[in-house]
Amino acid sequence: MLGSTHGTFTTGLRARVVACGEAPPVVVHGVTAAPGDQDVSGRPLYAPVPDLDRFFRPESVAVVGASDTEGRPNTGITRQLLAWAERVGARIHPVHPTRTTVFGIDCVRSVGALTEPVDLAVLLVADPLPVIEELAAAKVRFAVAFASGFAETGEAGAAAQERLAAAVRQSGLRLLGPNTNLNAFERFREDLEGPAVALITQSGHQGRPVFTLQELGVRLSHWAPTGNEADLETSDFISYFAGRPEVGAIACYVEGLKDGRSFLLAADRAARHGVPVVAVKVGRTETGARTAASHTGKLTGADQVVDAAMRQYGVIRVDGLDQLQDTATLLARARRPVADGVVVYSISGGTGAHFADLATAAGLELPTLPQDKQDELHQWIPEYLSVANPVDNGGHPVGDWRGRKIIDAILADPSVGVLICPITGPFPPMSDRLAQDLADAAEATDKLVCVVWGSPVGTEEAYRTTLLGSSRLATFRTFSNCIGAVKAYLDHHRFTSGYRSPFDEAPRTPSPSLRKAQALMRPGRRLSEHAAKQLLRAYGIRVPREQLVTSAAAAVRAAGLVGYPVVMKASGAQLAHKTELGLVKVGLTSASQVRDAYRELTDIARFESIDLDGILVCQMVGRGVEMVVGVTRDELFGPTVTVGLGGVLVEVLGDTAVRVPPFGEQEARSMLADLRGRALLDGVRGAPPADVDALVEVVLRVQRMALELDDDLAELDINPLMVLPRGQGAVALDALAVCR
């Protein structure tokens, strides 16, 4: 850690947008958004930002249930609140039905008896629900409920929490909790300078390691312990902190997201402001998700979707609390990089090689220093040592000026944006002088200088005083945390420097396709393949030439019109997997084969008691790369779009990428880059390159469908989508659609 002091589909696509009347206003968290601030499905496009100034810095505070009786839990809380109020300059008003004073301060029987407006009410009562109406009548702006026994305990608790949330929504006040704690009222050091870390946690204890960073000179500005989030949630605090001038980074411990859309809007606001959000999000495994639900009573969401959504909006996801500390601190305090190149500088060839391997594997760029720079470094470093990168000095000079010269020369190279020096252990006086030279160089450069202090002890003077005492040096204890933080630092600035909010490009009015598509929907039912393909046609997605027939003679006529060879398939709403039942016939080249295939397909359907709407006679499409593109609904984020290797490979390999709409062409292309089998689209073993542009267009049209049919479409599966050679397009050979 550092020391102290997307229009319609996409450009070039051919759909038009028509205005279909003005949408009604939408209310989110008590904030009314104008119709122009909604997407085509009526959802908000910008994060409402609660004014939390008076929460964190209230002028007057009512403590409901205040006590000064020793041994009572409320007494300790009251005492801590009194000390906090003194620090922030707030007036405390004890409220208790049977007391006249608390710690010598006049006490009133109810909130209604207070003689001045109250900014914040702290509720030290077992059931906060009866107090909410009273707080609303007194126009209290914020309340904190510590009480537990709500959604974290099961169905009965969840019902009680919903009653509380409903009362809060009607009251107009904003509530933190229930099942929260005193973390918001901790003592924050005021002697630390520079950009601060703002902390959000759903489990208070999990925030302790970040809070303790203050003891290492890292400034913290706020701590929001959100608890069960009956009202105020993680997203509210991200939105608020993103606009605070003192906040350099937001660190989050998230067990479950209350609302996926709100989270994306908040992350979008942070990205617009260039404020990094670093998060530990539990629920990667079934066990973790189950445990998180029992703790906070919220949905954890399919982890692949959560992970993709975070990456879409630049949220940096880390796994450990130590990574949360180090990454948030670096991102808060380091200046914008001037170059992406990383140089590893070490006193040991083995250390440099080890670190360089790990850094390169993580995706960091370690440029080879130019020959003239290497020649310069060899003025002070023996010729037999490699200085190409990593730079091996063979032992940092102790007795003269050469050590600092080496560091300054490396930093002067224009390809270098980050210098990392791993010091695997203390070796005085060399390690002491190296630490000091690095600290001095960091103060004199606009580039990032990092040190990994590998000693497990951590009491050494070089570490405690020199490294942690530097206002510009980034100090880590492990290779992995340093590499992860530096990668996040470079990625964040690359992301935000070219950031264009997906919400700015989200469609606000329906396309002409919507009315055609809605006429095809059958609420609560699965569409037949023929109907599903009509849905695709409505959105301009190419399907094979085909006809639906109900007799063998009609099948022969259709084959002549479609053109031999043909494919014949049973079509019915019950059919999801036709191949396994023998309901697909491929490569038919004559009228007799078509007649025989018709009889066989209908016989199988009768034997299996499958209702058909007919038999499809389809064009036989040439070979290409089989892909899958689909829409599913996530409990948290709503419609999501998936792309991957199709055919049987989707089940065997599960090589897919997912995104949450809205997104643009660049994000659609990044989905393809995420696939392990991406190289198949480029052409392998003599196969021609596939029409990637056509594939991207299909992904974006499917996304538009997902957005416009949000209330109508539960699931869509185009598999396979045959992506033909470059310039020939992509054809949906089969499709499944389920209506909501």
UniProtKB/TrEMBL annotation:
Keyword Signal part of the UniProt annotation: no
Source domain of life: Bacteria
Gene Ontology MF terms: ligase activity
Gene3D superfamilies for this protein: ATP-grasp fold, A domain, ATP-grasp fold, B domain, NAD(P)-binding Rossmann-like Domain, Succinyl-CoA synthetase domains
Taxonomy of the source species: Bacteria, Bacillati, Actinomycetota, Actinomycetes, Kitasatosporales
Name assigned to this protein: Acetate--CoA ligase family protein
Organism encoding this protein: Streptomyces exfoliatus (Streptomyces hydrogenans)
Domain ATP-grasp, chain residue ranges per copy: 533-571
UniProt keywords, alphabetically: ATP-binding, Ligase, Nucleotide-binding
The keyword Repressor appears for this protein: no
InterPro entries named among the record's database cross-references: ATP-grasp (IPR011761), ATP_grasp_subdomain_1 (IPR013815), CoA-bd (IPR003781), Ligase_CoA_dom (IPR043938), NAD(P)-bd_dom_sf (IPR036291), Succ_CoA_lig_flav_dom (IPR032875), Succinyl-CoA_synth-like (IPR016102)
Any Pfam family the entry gives: ATP-grasp_5
